[in-house]
Protein 1
Amino acid sequence: MLLFAACDSGSWKDGVCSITGEVDGEEVVLEGEQSSGPGSGGGSGTAQPADPPVDPDDEACGIRIDVCQITVTAPVTLADIAAFRPSTASHGMQPDGWAVIGLPTNFYSSGSAVIDTGTLLGQPAEVRFTPVGWSWNYGDGSSSTTATPGRRWTASTEFSPSATTHVFEQRGTYTITLTVQYRAEWRVAGGPWVAVSGILSLPAPPQQVLVTGARTVLVDEDCVANPTGPGC
């Protein structure tokens, strides 16, 4: 939460402005040193002189008042960014929609950071969500959590085990669910990213897999090179 306060000439003493204010129900004393010119200083607990409300050279003005702004930032929580959400994580499997008993089935998901925009603490803001964990439930009583989203198999790695593969032991149709854990950061006005305390867990759409058996047959040639050969 941001708290803004103004220092008039009576709030300054020995170049320091002190104001008693409130942040999240707690009474705090805000102090900031007067800077040498407009725009200098800044940040938490820093007084920033602004243009005077009247022309100091005007004879009718009387006394010039120094005005400053003090900003106090309380930690942003997951509750504060409830209106922000990353796009739903995409995920897939190989083979697509089916699996063979006793052989690895490959699961993979997206792993890129996502930025959402909106209003935070009364200001236009950005929140960046970075995935840091992927929790799969395979529907057969087993599950796993990895620090990697996995990747698609290539021709040379097909049916190779990895951190995100799973071996089914029984025939059947299973529902696979995935939950992605995100770390969040926020910023305003293109400033530095500030970490949000806690981990946000969001589900991805479920998918189904049909697990079946397989039988070995003899073929005359390589079926990739000659798909019309005997046994292919």
Protein 2
Amino acid sequence: MDKIKIGIKTWSNNTKVIEQLKTAYSKGIISYVEIYVVPGTSANISLFKAMNIPIVIHSTHSKHNVNIAKKELLEYNTKMFKEVVLFTEKLNSETIILHADYDGTNTAAIACLKNFESMVKNSGMITVENMPKIALDGTECLGQNAEMMKAILQDKYSFCLDFSHAYKAAFALGKEPKKLINELLELEPKLFHLSGAGSYTLKDDHLNLFDKRNEMDNSFVKKAIKKSKSKMVTIETPVRNLESIEEDLRNIEFLEEL
């Protein structure tokens, strides 16, 4: 796909798709796998290592009660991050993606990131993802625009541009989505997350790219990825069947045909 590097996201408790991921990699369909670290699954590290596929790590997030923006969760966040670091080291990953998070403060988030930074090889491994304006619980997110992201990144952490989050933030802020994305692109993303987004709800959703509710300009997004330095993009569309990557492959095919 003209040098775009596609990744498929899976979870560290889902080993059923490993053989399918190996096949997709051997066929040149994907260039890497992004693994979300589910707490208590480090026993599966050897299985993912045996894939012999480049790995990006996604840190444990609010699904497992981690929130870097909450001061009172600093100790818990740090405890959960230890297993994330273990996955990162054992799988030779150079990237750990974290959410900027919600219902908290930049001060707390920065303090937490500083803790995390002391646990990894270099600050550039820590890659913070932009957020929609409104979290799933209705509270407000950090990192919803370029100014807020820049304050968190502090010119030392890397940036993951999530297109769906940007569209959702733009819808909620009453801003033209492409303008917001162009502002975020100036932060030089290390990689991208891609899924569809619609204004029917301002909360995060992650639609398939081919979903009729998707209001994203997919061609604009593809051009933005191709112009970037890294050109790495993880397909983060919904997984209906945890035993198959067929839906991921359908989204990849849709992107290729644009």
Protein 3
Amino acid sequence: MGLVVLAIHAHPDDIEFCCAGTLILLKDAGCELHYMTVARGDVGSMEFNRRKAARVREKEARNAASFIGAMFHPAITRDIEVFYTIDQIRKVLAVIREVAPDMMLVPSPEDYMEDHMNASRLAVSAAFCRAIPNVKSRPRRAPVSREVVVYHAMPHGLKDGMRRQPVPDFYVDITEVMERKEKMLSMHESQKAWLDKTQGMESYLASMRETSAAVGKMSGSFRYAEGWRRHNNLGFSVKETDPLREILTEYVQ
């Protein structure tokens, strides 16, 4: 069995947009995958009330996780209520201690909306606290000393809130798994009407392909790609290591 990989993002379908291609390649390389969104996706509907929307979107997320053989971890809060609080840090910390990942794939620290940025901060802070006995998780889980490497995905729309475009440290070629990434995203059927009406995406599948193609163009080498930035190793690993690049060497630029 390969390394343990935990993807933590803000909402159901964020993982599919930002990092599903990389996750599929890691699964193919023998890694153990874990899938978590911090929020339930309960406001992302023009049709359902919050309670039903949360049920529908959790089912879709579970199906998507199952499609790539990832273990699903339930959300901890509601949409627009992803806040950088000790209570939410403790809940994310419980998942990290339970999974004990070698690698985490998390949102960009700069993005167009607060839920995404706060999910990034929660994941980073919880990972930092994973081995600290005096920081209690909720529910209680024993501290874990395993080193972890944290990678940040590109922001949605590839720009931050001030319209600036982050530059990845490296790119992963997802061309050969693009069909599986699209299939995974298509399992979030409830999002088509929502994204069409609220964010002008027309087709969320086409928008995902366009974004992946834009990152591929940035790479200068790939048709479709996902871009990654590696978090500072201090507090996470004794030495700088780069397991994502090492495992996916043949796909990295």
